[in-house]
Amino acid sequence: MHPAQPPRSVIWRVIGAASAGTLIEWYDFYLFGSLATILGAKFFPGDDPTAGFLKTLAIFASGFIVRPFGAIVFGRLGDVVGRKHTFLVTLLLMGGSTFLIGLLPGYAEIGVLAPLGLTVLRLVQGLALGGEYGGAATYVAEHAPDARRGFYTSFIQTTATLGLFASLGVILACRQSLGKDAFEEWGWRIPFLLSIVLVLFSYWIRVRMEESPLFASAKRNGTLSRNPIAESFGKPENRRLVLIALFGAVAGQGVVWYTGQFYALFFLQRVAGVEFVPSNLIVVAALLLATPFFVLFGSLSDRIGRKPIILTGCLLAALLYVPIYQGMMHFGQQFAAAGASAGQGPADDATFPAVMLVALVFVQVLLVTMVYGPIAAFLVELFPTRIRYTSMSLPYHIGNGVFGGLTPYVASLLVERTGNPYAGLAYPITIALATVVVGVLLVKERRGVSLAAE
Questions:
Q1: Is 2 domain-assigned?
Q2: Structural domain contains residue 357
Q3: Residue 40 belongs to domain with CATH number
Q4: Is residue 192 within a helix (H) or strand (E), and if so which, with residue range?
């Protein structure tokens, strides 16, 4: 029997508490990617900047690769102990490791221990985030009414973009107030150190929350799984659902997300030649304009389904990426040639290229909102309460952590090896198209299904 539906005021408090912590974790996680160029110079020998950048991206990617392991560890904990306590732990792990990155000496001070320490802290970040998202999405979904699940969980989906937005905003504020030289020398540490204040505030909010009503009901009724890992991945019917979720939705969603919100920034800076500050401002503007569409597509998925929106987003991305990036190259070079430089506003003849660059990145982020807005509701509806945290976390973090997280590194490497500025797009286009094929053939629509505990 379904527990009594919480009042709407309770649902909004749940969304606020879950979103606050998730936003901070994404902020922590994306500081690393946003500062990859500077971190490469600080934590690797300075004789080959390109090699240092690629090695930093490899460390950045390592945090994504371990996310599935975090999903297994913390997913099991969430299904056995509870949603609330699990993502209190993940929040503290993420915040602690981010703070320590801000204190870590560079290669000039401690040599090879610098990249080694950076890698270890990045791995802890990845493990923590592997347990965070599934807990937050499950927690909100288990409070939300069945008919509005896409709408309410879409607010969790905005936190990844808002976390990136916040990280870029703090970086730009520090960069502008300190100046280029001071920021690259020591000021880049400030955004990492500031995160500890935000994490402690978020922890205070979360510790006051109640447990999910569906989990509490399952616990009272004795229907919790004793071994959610074995039940999720050992039983053929559940394992099949995990694989369908991964290859029929989340893999494509992951590459679209990281192409539109990370590779776009790298491409502007390293391929199109746009300076650090203007390139970040372009991405920030596009993120700000597109963020409301997460809620729009989440709400729309309550009416027409999760599957058609997610797969349409993947298909459009595969078809539009090449012309979009050709446009970014064209207008990026125009913008750079017009004399826009770090710390200065663009010249008059750079205004139109700047507007066009914002528009081109906006289209990419709009595609992100299509694939990402409904994904939490899609995943929680696939699995029963007793194994939901574990079962949904693994495909999500393989799709986003491995397929998606590798996008900046693989794409940048393909450009570097081939000399073709658009070669990197082959990777996200291939994954997105494969997802469309698998999704059309195997994914079944389950919007609005009851999540009542067994």
A1: no
A2: yes
A3: 1.20.1250.20
A4: helix 189-207
Write down the pLDDT at residue 342. Answer: 42
Picking from 64, 413, 58, 428, the residue whose alpha carbon sits closest to that of residue 271 is 413
Task: Say how many domains are in the chain.
Answer: 1
- What pLDDT score does 115 carry? 86
**What phi, psi does 342 have (nearest 5°)?**
-60, 130
Q: Which residue has the higher pLDDT, 23 or 362?
A: 362
For residue 3, being part of any structural domain is answered with no
- Model confidence pLDDT, tens digit, residues 351-363: 899 999 999 999 9
pLDDT tens for residues 418-447? Answer: 989 999 999 999 999 999 999 999 999 999
What gap in Å lies between CA 374 and CA 371, rounded to an integer?
A: 7
Name the token pair of 380.
């929680």
The C-alpha atoms of residue 56 and residue 39 are separated, in whole angstroms, by: 7
Calpha distance 390→47 (Å, rounded): 45
Contacts of 442 (CB under 8 A, 6+ apart): 244, 248
Predicted local confidence at residue 341, as pLDDT: 47
Handedness of CA 437, 440, 442, 446 (dihedral sign): positive
> Domain of 160?
8-442
- pTM, full prediction: 0.83
